[in-house]
Write a structure and sequence with these properties.
By secondary structure, the protein is an alpha/beta fold. The chain is built from six helices and ten strands, in the order βββααβββαβαββαβα. Helix 3 (about 105-120) packs across helix 4. The chain is globular. About 40% of the residues are buried.
Length: about 250
């Protein structure tokens, strides 16, 4: 992400979950650009943390997906979760149910959402703006793919868990092959996933590989539920990406 000149705080914000200061949306209206942040344990203000941008599943929200962060790592990352632009209703727990849409109608809005969320978290903590990874969970993977393809070199990598690549509209390219050259992509998928069959993830892997992406496909003995090993492997994979860039940003778990 390009720097806009903002400076991170040198004091020590509280670890854990923090809300974006934007006011809550009116339930009858489309959700506003809302995000939540996660700060790691023993946060070090002068360390440039990699940042994970989380895309929630269909019917979820930014609160739900951010709760996954301690499973990835309590120390290695700053994270920001964003809310899908479509309001679907209210869940049984009283939280908003949101979605990303079924086509690319909201792609421009979502990309702006990502950029604003990263800039927002930069006002609070020290992140490395060239180490921003998009993480799509289940249906959120479609939006994460679209953003990664559109933002190109503004993201350091893409992670999808039990999700799938969006399908291109007839006659329109899904991505420019040159934009995927060496893009690091981690695909984690359950072999018994009946919602998005493993064959779909395998097809996505082959398409990305053929386009020149640096893609890894990992299979897990699970359905469409997230497997604990997914979190472990994502943590290791991101650290490996940082180590390959000279080891300047690696940090132990």
């Amino acid at each position: 992400m390009a720097s806009t000149g903002s400076k991170w705080r040198l004091d020590r914000p509280a670890e854990g979950f923090d809300a974006d200061p934007a006011p809550p949306p009116t339930p009858a209206l489309r959700p506003s650009v809302m995000c939540r942040t996660f700060l790691p344990d023993a946060y070090e203000p002068r360390y440039p943390y990699p940042c994970l941008v989380l895309f929630h599943p269909h019917g979820g929200n930014e609160e739900q997906v951010l709760e996954l962060m301690p499973h990835f790592s309590r120390r290695n990352f700053v994270a920001v979760s964003i809310r899908g632009p479509e309001l679907l209703g209210v869940r049984e727990d009283g939280q908003l149910s949101c979605g990303w849409g079924h086509d690319d109608t909201h792609t421009e809005l979502i990309n702006e959402h990502v950029m604003r969320a990263v800039e927002s978290v930069r006002r609070t903590c020290h992140i490395h703006t060239e180490r921003v990874f998009l993480v799509g969970v289940c249906e959120g993977a479609i939006a994460a793919y679209r953003s990664a393809f559109a933002l190109e070199d503004k993201v350091a990598g893409l992670i999808t868990l039990n999700g799938s690549m969006p399908r291109a509209a007839s006659g329109s390219p899904l991505f420019r092959p040159q934009s995927l050259r060496q893009l690091p992509v981690f695909i984690g998928h359950g072999i018994a996933n009946a919602v998005v069959p493993f064959a779909t993830a395998s097809r996505d892997y082959k398409l990305l590989y053929a386009a020149g992406a640096d893609v890894m496909l990992s299979r897990y003995v699970t359905t469409n539920r997230l497997h604990p090993d997914m979190f472990r492997d994502v943590n290791r994979w991101v650290i490996e990406q940082l180590n390959e860039d000279g080891g300047r940003f690696a940090k132990s778990s």
